[in-house]
Structures are given as C-alpha cells and as structure tokens.
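This part of the workshop introduces the protein records we will be handling. An example says more than a description, so a record of this kind follows.
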Amino acid sequence: MRLSFSISLGFALFTAAVPLAAQSFDSTAVAQLSLMPMPASIHVDSGGHLPLTASFRLAVPRFKDGRLTRAADRAITRLARRTGLPLAHTIARDSLLGTLVIDVRGPGETVQSVDEDESYTLDVTTFRAVLRAPTVVGALRGLETFQQLVTGAGSGYAIPLAHIVDRPRFKWRGLLIDVSRHFEPVDVIERNLDAMAAVKLNVLHWHLSDDQGFRIESKRYPKLQDLGSGGSYYTQTQVREIVAYARDRGIRVVPEFDMPGHSISWFVGYPSLASAPGPYTLPTDYNFTAGAFDPTRESVYRFITRFVAEMAPVFPDKYWHIGGDEVDARAWEANTAIHRFMRRHKLNDFGALQAYFNKRLSRILAAQHKRVIGWDEILHPDLPHDVVVQSWRGQGSLFTAAAQGYSGILSAGYYLDAMSSAGQHYAVDPIPTGSDLDSAQAARVLGGEACMWGELVTPETIDSRIWPRTAAIAERLWSPATTVNVNDMYRRLAAVSVELADVGVHHLSGPDALWRLIAQTDRIAPLRALQRVVEPVSLGQRMHTRRPTAFTPLVQPGDIVTPDAAEGRALSALLDTLFRDPSRGAGLRDSLATIFSEWQAIAPAIATLHSRAPLLTDADSAAAALAAAGAIGAEALRYLGGGPPAAGMWISDRLAQLDSLAAPRGLMRLAIIPQLRRLVLAAGATAATTGQ
C-alpha cells in the first residue's frame, strides 16, 4: 500500500491529479528491467513512459536537507552523463515544477543506526515521477532505483511507468575492506562507498588493524601509527571525512581493531601490551602469528580505555568490532603469570580467558556507548548478550548464536578472496529456506557482509575483486528471499557492472591498465580475450603455489584476471540451447566453431607478446592450454555434425586431456573445462539424448 503523507495543498492536488497511469501491469516489462537489487514489489505498465528531456527538473518540496540536496545533485550529474542532456542542477521547491519529485517525511536519525528506515515508494507516470520516503536514507535508496530505471527509448531516454514499494529484507548489508595487509588510499575507499550506495549496501566494515599494519592516527598513542603502519595510515581528519562521505550516502562505518590476536602491529610500539616481552616487528608475510594481548594486566585495560575514548568520537556508529578470531593459545601458554591469573580467577581454559578479556572490553566500549561485534570465536557462555557475533565459519555458528540469544551477521559464503562466482555467492542466504530458526531467532540474524581481505589486493586490483560480484550479494541481502533466478541475476549484473564503472570503481578499467603495464604495449586484445575464459586460482591454491609477502608486487596475470569468467557462462548457454533444440543445431555449431577457432588464435598472439614481456609467462601457458581445449572442442563438433558417434577410446582420451588442461597455469586456470567435458560426452551420443 502506498504511503500517504500530510503535505501542502498544492502537492496534495498534484498527487490526486496524476494517479498511476494504468492498471494493466506487465510482468514481461518487469523482466526486461536491469534493476539490482530487485525491489520488494514492482509493477510496470508497458503502455507508456516518462520521457527524459533537457527540461528535466528535480523538486524537493518538503524541507531543506544538505544530505538530500547533495544526493540530488549527484543524481542529476549521473543522469546528464547517462543521457547527454544539459540538465539544470537547480532544485525546485514547487512540486509542480518537478519531473522527479522527492517527498521525504524527515531527515532520519542524526547518527544512522541499524534500525534506520530505508523504505521508499516510487511512482512513475507519463507526467512525472514521485519518490516518497520516511527518511533521507530511504530517498537515497529510491534515487538509485530511479537511476537504474533509465532506458533508451528510440532517439532519447525514458523511464517506464512503474509503481515500486521497496524495503530491505535485512537491516545489515555490509562490505568489509581490509586495509591492514595492503593499505588502500582515501580515494579507493570513497569510490567503493559510491559503488556500495549504488547497490544499497549500508555498512562499511573497516578492518583497520591486524598483524601487518595499524592504519589510523592516534594522537594519544602515536607509536601505533609511527611504528606500526610502515608509514601508511589515515589521519583522524581523513577518517572523519570518510565517515561523513559515507553518511552522505546512507552508509554506516564500523571500525575493527583486532584483539586479543591478530595484533602484532599494536606491540611494535607498545610491547608491554603483549603476553610475551618482544621486541616486535611488523611481519611481512601472511603466516599465522602467536602474538596476543595480555588479558591479565590492568595496564592493558587502561591503555585500551584511553584508546577507545580517543577513537569513539571519530567513529560515531554504535557498533565497534573487536575481531576476536584465531587467537593462538601459544601466545599465553608460555606465560606463567597468565596461568596463575587463570587459577586465581577459576578460568578453566584459554577460551574462558578470552571471554574474560571480551567482558572487560565490552564494559570499556559500553562506557563509550558502543556495542561489541566479534567473529565466531568470541561466542562463549560468559559473553554479554548485547554482543553481535559475525560468522565466518558457517551458518551453523550463526544459528547457534541466534539460538543462544545473540544477534548475528553472516560472512561465511561471502568471502570475496575465495574467488567464487557471483552465482555461488548469490546462493548463500543468511536464513535459507527450511532453516530451523523460529521467528525470534530469525529476527536476531541482522544480515550479512561481503569480505574483501587484503593479502592479495592493491589499489590497482581491489575494485575488480570486489565488483561486480558484491552486487549479487547486495541483492541477496536486500531483495525478497524468492528472488533466486541466477540467469536473470547475471543478465542484470552485466548492466549494473557498467553503472558501477560510471559511479567510479575501476573493476573494468583496472585490469586493462595492468595488462598494458606488464605487456608493455597497448595492443592487449589477446589478453582481454584470454581474460574472458580464465579465472584466478582459489585463495588456498594461491597461498600454496606462490605464497606472497607484503612486498610481492601483485602484477602476475593471475592477479589481473577476474573471477567468474564470462565466456564459461556464455558457452554453457550455447550448449543448453544446442541440446535442447536440435533444429538450431547447424547455426549453433557454427557459433561454437567460431569460438573454438578464436581460442586457438589467441595462443600465437600471446606468445608474440610474451617474447617481449617475461611477466606474461603464465598467460602464455594458459593460452597454449586454451588452444588445445579449442582443438578438442572443434573435434567434438565434427562428431555432432552427423555420422556415427565418437568411439569410446576417443572420448576417454579427450577427457583425460581436459583433466590435464584443468590444472592451474601459474596463478590462474581455464574456466571452460566443464563445458568442454560436456561437449565431448555429447560427441559419444546423439544430440537428442544429451540434455545434461
């Protein structure tokens, strides 16, 4: 049901005069849109549209709000870039002058909270569009939907007639960016905040400290950044600016300062905080370290109290992440004073000791009006129930926490450095169908967060590791649970990916820049073609193949290629059609033959590049493997073109070859091997029986 506001007489007459133009809503028209996330409810009338012309005006009749005004100005800039129209940036106060009218009930919370109302409605008629929201944040979400509705219409642009009622399914929809392992400059954070806003994410989880680096200025304890950052950190002024930048886009910023483990960077400047005397140096590798805070000394809690008091005003959000994961017991085992403390306080094991530390930490943060978040390992019977548990180990941990009365956030299944496909992430639901959670427990599942850990990303590569896959996760967290069509998700993701590039992230342009760098030429078409059929190896494979350090330049081909190779999906779709519709066989076989021929042509082109660019060794190897795969595909097509099926010996031999070709080529692998296996198996049968 549409929201009804008490507004000025002129605006009331306006809304009465232009109801939604038609009632004949068209599901086919909805299916042609490229919205992401899909709204909770959308109806489209295919009988008309709202034209976008140079006379487009944006009106905000209710009240003046700096955040809304700035958002409106950004929206006009994007519309002008999208349409080529010279749009006026003047915001009208009279709703009758607006092509898009934004009617907001109020500004919302001074400090945006997890309970901020993000709902909105959007009505588009042939006269104008009306966006209504209870808060400015809701209006920000609606503005993003309006932008995505813009479509080409003949010689110009238009918005389809629509009625949208939208609200998020989950209130916590985040992205973790780890800046400790590799520092990310301010502009990287800001452009990713813009992309987050475009797909309605609302939490930046900023992982600011870990063993490899402490990334924020402390004026009270300057050795934290002076000795613990390697010279790369954010000033408090920069952090405040980023927090304000995020708030302008309806995004909360939650800091993470990892403790008691993952904390070597604290101890480089302040070794007295640690359970072992040191001295400490910043690790340059990513091996597991045993350093940890000493939970038994009052001086440690005094230090943390003062640090939190300094940082609390910099981060106004109510939540504060303490980390708490992967504490190595070796950090405490060798300290006899810790053992005495545990006996005196009847702490039976190191889990109880960490729970003691977390309770003390919780009280310190509560004094600053902060609420604790921590990873799975903090869950303990002694943990205060206002703590939020973030699950990286699986939904089982999340559901256990919910059953015990704790709120939780899911990150298992959303680790971007695992190099999973968008479709795999999309299939992960914080509350899957058929879960055993009752309504109270389900309400404690706040949502989820995608995680971009920093070992394998730099400012040049981070965008292509985050986007566009995170848009699929954003939809899973915003849209109804029934929005599950993977093929349609990929269709819309392709369009949204282009919009994200326009917002400012470098996921499309970044790989090209690195290819030019390592190939020492701008003639990179063969490398672009290769990128469409290969993917990076998994995180585990990378760490076991060529384990990087903090000094490793991440400019190998496997660092450049992106997850979720597009040509693998396209090839699957062609095979689906080929086996489902034999009447189209000849044309589809011709298309496949062209693809396989192109694969074979890539190899000599990349070999030529490699002769002048040694960094292309892995690309050369992958291209040779691709050529061999293309030859197998071409052979299979000849069998499918008529005549007897392939002999069993040929099939077993080609499958063995494909198994060999599936092996990693340096830091990447071919992403089209499963499709070719399917084609080889089809060559041994008739097309009519090969619909697998």
Q: What stands out?
A: The first strand starts at residue 41 and ends at 52. The CA atoms of residues 208 and 670 lie 35 Å apart. The longest helix spans residues 585-610. Residues 1-25, 687-692 have pLDDT under 50 and may be disordered.
